[in-house]
Amino acid sequence: MIEPKSTTNGTSFINLTQIVITSTKQTCLMQVRQTSIQGLIELTPRLFEDERGHFFESYNKPLFESLGLPMDFVQDNQSFSTKGVLRGLHMQNQPFAQGKLVRVISGQVLDIAVDLRPDSPTFGQYEGFLLDAKRANMAYIPEGFAHGFVALEDSVFSYKCTNVYNKAAESGIIWNDPDLNIDWGVANPIVSEKDKELKLFREIFPQAVV
Predict the structure, then answer these.
(1) Is 54 an active-site residue?
(2) Is the pLDDT confidence value at 15 over 60?
(3) What's the rounded Cα separation, in Å, for the pair 107 and 120?
(4) Which of 23, 34, 43, 56 is most exposed by smallest CB count within 10 Å?
(5) Does residue 39 lie within any of the structural domains?
(6) With a threshold of 0.85, does the pTM exceed it?
(7) Structural domain containing residue 107
(8) Residues at site: Participates in a stacking interaction with the thymidine ring of dTDP-4-oxo-6-deoxyglucose (predicted)?
């Protein structure tokens, strides 16, 4: 039987670096955390603050190129969720699989990404990100992951996608799957009827569960 586990512990990351991209007109400082799941990273931009408020770069093509991340995002999505709403776990099957760059514009969410790449050494494991508008941190989730989040406050959630939405390719895993055993940190989340009907992990990957 698989042994899914959380990798949210603060000591779980592989490295913590600062990437500086210099162009003719500007310098961008970005903190990058590579998680223990290959390809899944957290990015925290530097906030330039003064008495008026703050400014930061939410996307920088040279930075993404330096990290080997996709630059060709083709669809932007945005949702509003009241406190306690849980959305997920969602994914799209090939050839419409999506990579996602996710962040919150306002509020705070616990964002979950589950590695569903059968050949990955971390197959069946998940990572949690506390995404906070005050920090402006983001997560890049590659293709081959199921994704979901729970709103810890009323939150506006934004994500850039590497592929367009395709209804026929929609799939997902139920949020409280017993094999994945995800700790969402909430007792009774608000879940849509559609998400309540999502499949179990073992229904999609029977070979992974004994």
Answers:
(1) no
(2) no
(3) 33
(4) 23
(5) yes
(6) no
(7) 15-208
(8) 165
